[in-house]
Design brief:
The complex is a heterodimer of chains A (271) and B (266). With 271 residues, chain A is mainly alpha-helical. Helix content of chain A is 47%, strand content 0%. Chain B has a single domain, classed as Beta Barrel (Porin). Helices cover 9% and strands 56% of the residues of chain B. In chain B, strand 5 and strand 6 form a beta hairpin. The longest helix of chain B is centred in the N-terminal third of the chain and has 20 residues. The chains are: A mainly alpha (271), B mainly beta (266).
C-alpha cells in the first residue's frame, strides 16, 4: 500500500505550477498533459502548432519560440517528445519566428521521449481541479487506515455492486441509486484505487466478487470524485500519480472515460 | 454523586461491550478496523471531580503575634462538563483546546495545627467555604498502540495538559467559640492560576460505518489548579482583616466519560 511520490515528481509539480502561472500572466491558457496531447492530435499533423505541439507530434513551430522557450519546450523546432512514443503527432513543422532562435530549453536532447518517459509524464501532476479527490494527498498511514476500514466494512451486500459490469453499474446507479450499497468515502475509494492500480484489486480475492479490474478502477475513481467535477484523463493521471502510480496516456484516457460514466450515473441517480 | 459514578461505569461497560460486538462477523474480509479519524474533532465530556485540597492555612488578623493556622481541608465531590476542539493526526498523537467547568464544591477545614505549637482548641476552624473552577487547557494525547500502527477500535491513551484555571472562592467563614466574634465571614475572591493535568484513559470507537464515527472515551485525570484563595474583606461584624486569607492548593482527581466526533469524514 505504501508508495511515496517521488521527490522529482513534486519538483515537476512545482514547475508546472510556475509554468501555468507564467502562461496565465502571458494570457495563454494553462495547458495540461492530456489536453495538450489532444490538441496536438488534432493539429500537429497539419503543421499548425498553435501552442501544444510539445506533447503531440511535431506540428509546433517557432511562433512562440522565444517568448516561451524558458517555460516549456515550446519552440523546439517541432521536436515533440511524444512524437515517437505516443504515436499521436503528425509531421508538420511551422516556420520559426524570424526573431526566434527556434530553440527551446530541450533543444538537442533528442525527440520522441525524454529520459524514457513521455513529456506529459515528465511534467508531473497536471494542474486541474481535483475536488474531493484531493484527499489522495493524505498521509500514507491515513490512506492505509482507509483501506483497512473499507475492507472492514465490506459486506456481502456491497459485493453485489462490485460484481456489476460497467454498463450494469451505470444503469443501477442511474436508476436505482438508493437501493445500492457501495463504498462512498472518497478516501476509502482512493485507497482501493491505489490497491487496484497494480492490476489486481483485493476485492477480486473474495469469492463473492469477480469483476474486471478496469471496471473496479472506474468504480473507485468515479465514486471518489465529486459528483459535479468532471473526471478527465488529466484527473485520472493526476490521481494515479499522487497515489504512486503512473498511468500511460491510453490507460488514463480509458480509466477517465469509464470513471466519468460512473460519476455521471451517480449524478443522475443521486442528484 | 454516586449515581453519576455508576452511570459513568455503566457507560464504560456498555461502550466496551458495544465495541466488542459491533461490526464483527459482517466484513467479508473478517476485519474490524477503526475508522479514519484524521483531522479536526469535537469532544464533549462529563464526569465527577473529587477535590483534594492540600496545604490549607490562614493567618489571622493578629499575625504574627497570633500563629498561622493550618487546616485539614476537605471538599465535596462535584460534577464537571467539558468541551474540546482538537486535531487528530492519527499517528498516535492528537491535541486539543478544552474548556472544563467544575461545579461548586463545599469546603470545610478544621484546624490541624498552629505554627506556634499551640493546640487547636483555641483556634478557628473554617466552617464554610465553596470553590468553583473553570479551566482552559491545552491537552495532548498519546495512544501507544495507534502510534505503533495498531488500528483497533479500542485504544488506550495517556494525556497531559497545561492551561489556565480560574477559581472562585465564595464568602468563607471561620468559627472560633472562644473568640470575641465566634463567627466571622470574609468575602470571596477569584484568581487565575497556571494549571496542569496528567491522566490516562481508553477510547472506544462505537460505530465504524457512519458518516461521523463516534468515539467513546473514559478518562482519569489529576488536575492541579494552583492555589484557591478567599478574600480578606470582612462581611458582617468585625473590621479586622486576616493577614492572609483562607487558601489551599487546589487539586482534584477527575473521572469522566465523553464522546469524540471527527468532523472531517475523508
Amino acid at each position: 500500500m505504501t508508495r511515496d511520490i517521488p521527490h522529482t515528481v513534486l519538483l515537476r509539480g512545482a514547475s508546472i505550477l510556475a509554468l501555468s502561472a507564467m502562461l496565465a500572466v502571458s494570457g495563454l491558457p494553462a495547458a495540461t498533459p492530456f489536453s495538450q496531447a489532444a490538441h496536438a492530435d488534432s493539429h500537429g499533423g497539419q503543421g499548425q502548432g498553435s501552442g501544444g505541439g510539445h506533447t503531440g507530434g511535431e506540428g509546433h513551430g517557432g511562433d512562440h519560440g522565444e517568448d516561451h522557450a524558458e517555460a516549456s519546450d515550446h519552440g523546439q523546432q517541432g521536436q515533440g517528445p511524444q512524437a515517437g512514443g505516443g504515436g499521436t503527432g503528425g509531421q508538420g513543422q511551422g516556420a520559426p519566428d524570424p526573431d526566434s532562435e527556434g530553440r527551446g530549453p530541450k533543444y538537442g536532447q533528442g525527440s520522441g521521449e525524454t529520459g524514457g518517459k513521455p513529456v506529459w509524464a515528465q511534467e508531473g501532476i497536471p494542474e486541474i481541479e481535483l475536488g474531493r479527490l484531493n484527499v489522495a494527498r493524505s498521509p500514507d498511514h491515513v490512506l492505509e487506515r482507509a483501506y483497512d476500514e473499507a475492507l472492514s466494512n465490506f459486506t456481502a451486500e456491497m459485493a453485489e455492486f462490485y460484481n456489476l459490469t460497467l454498463e450494469e453499474a451505470i444503469t443501477e446507479l442511474s436508476l436505482n441509486f438508493d437501493d445500492l450499497v457501495f463504498i462512498d468515502s472518497p478516501l476509502q475509494n482512493l485507497a482501493l484505487l491505489k490497491d487496484a492500480l497494480d492490476g489486481a484489486s483485493i476485492l477480486n480475492t473474495l469469492p463473492e466478487v469477480s469483476n474486471s479490474n478496469d471496471t473496479l478502477l472506474a468504480m473507485f475513481l468515479g465514486t471518489a470524485s465529486d459528483k459535479t467535477v468532471e473526471v478527465t484523463p488529466d484527473t485520472a493521471y493526476a490521481v494515479s500519480l499522487i497515489l504512486g502510480y503512473e498511468l500511460t496516456e491510453d490507460q488514463a484516457i480509458a480509466l477517465a472515460a469509464d470513471a466519468e460514466a460512473i460519476r455521471i450515473a451517480i449524478l443522475a441517480g443521486h442528484g | 454523586m454516586r449515581r453519576l459514578l455508576y452511570l459513568i461505569a455503566f457507560l464504560g461497560c456498555a461502550a466496551t461491550a458495544g465495541a466488542a460486538s459491533a461490526g464483527s462477523g459482517e466484513s467479508l474480509f473478517g476485519l474490524d478496523t477503526a475508522s479514519v479519524t484524521y483531522g479536526p474533532y469535537l469532544r464533549g465530556e462529563f464526569g465527577v471531580a473529587s477535590p483534594r485540597p492540600g496545604g490549607a492555612f490562614w493567618r489571622p488578623p493578629g499575625f504574627p503575634s497570633d500563629p498561622q493556622i493550618s487546616f485539614d481541608a476537605d471538599a465535596g465531590n462535584v460534577s464537571l462538563v467539558g468541551l474540546a476542539f482538537g486535531y487528530d493526526w492519527q499517528n498516535g498523537f492528537r491535541g486539543e483546546l478544552a474548556l472544563n467547568a467544575f461545579g461548586s464544591s463545599d469546603v470545610t477545614a478544621p484546624c490541624a495545627a498552629a505554627s506556634d505549637g499551640s493546640g487547636c482548641a483555641s483556634h478557628a476552624d473554617i466552617s464554610s467555604a465553596a470553590v468553583r473552577t473553570r479551566a482552559l487547557m491545552a491537552n495532548v494525547y498519546y495512544a501507544p498502540r495507534e502510534a505503533a500502527g495498531n488500528s483497533s477500535r479500542i485504544q488506550p491513551f495517556l494525556t497531559a495538559g497545561i492551561g489556565l484555571a480560574r477559581t472562585t472562592m465564595s464568602d468563607w467563614t471561620r468559627t472560633n467559640p472562644l473568640a470575641g466574634q465566634p463567627v466571622r465571614t470574609f468575602a470571596g475572591a477569584t484568581g487565575s492560576e497556571l494549571a496542569w493535568s496528567v491522566g490516562a484513559g481508553i477510547a472506544i470507537e462505537l460505530d465504524t460505518d457512519t458518516k461521523h464515527p463516534v468515539i467513546f472515551e473514559a478518562t482519569y485525570r489529576y488536575f492541579d489548579f494552583g492555589s484557591a484563595s478567599g478574600g480578606t474583606v470582612p462581611v458582617g461584624p468585625g473590621a479586622s482583616q486576616p493577614a492572609a486569607p483562607f487558601q489551599f492548593d487546589h487539586r482534584s482527581h477527575v473521572i469522566s466519560v465523553g464522546i469524540r466526533i471527527p468532523l472531517q469524514r475523508l
